[in-house]
Specification:
The chain is mainly alpha-helical. The chain has one domain. It is 90% helix and 0% strand. The protein is built from three helices and no strands. It has helices at residues 2-21, 25-45, 49-79. Helix 1 runs antiparallel to helix 2 and helix 2 runs antiparallel to helix 3 (49-79).
Length: 80
């Protein structure tokens, strides 16, 4: 189990750094969602299921969708 936790930590760190250096906004938003999902798994492993569910719902779910909608709308405005 510790190996899986280390892999998830590494995934979160790599995804966060990749999101920072990404040129494409959509991929940066998706990578930020991956970070939130990895962190929610780590919260679950730390015996905080309420925090894990909130992070998964808000951080990985709702925030990612809202940011993707915002990126799409700004791209449409730039094309006009």
């Amino acid at each position: 189990m510790i190996f899986i936790d280390l892999v998830v930590c590494l995934l979160a760190i790599v995804s966060a750094v990749w999101a920072i250096i990404a040129r494409n906004l959509v991929s940066a938003v998706v990578l930020a969602g991956v970070v939130s999902l990895a962190v929610s798994y780590l919260f679950l492993r730390l015996a905080a299921p309420d925090v894990a569910m909130t992070e998964a719902a808000i951080g990985a779910g709702l925030s990612t969708v809202i940011f993707l909608i915002a990126v799409r709308r700004t791209e449409e405005e730039e094309k006009r």
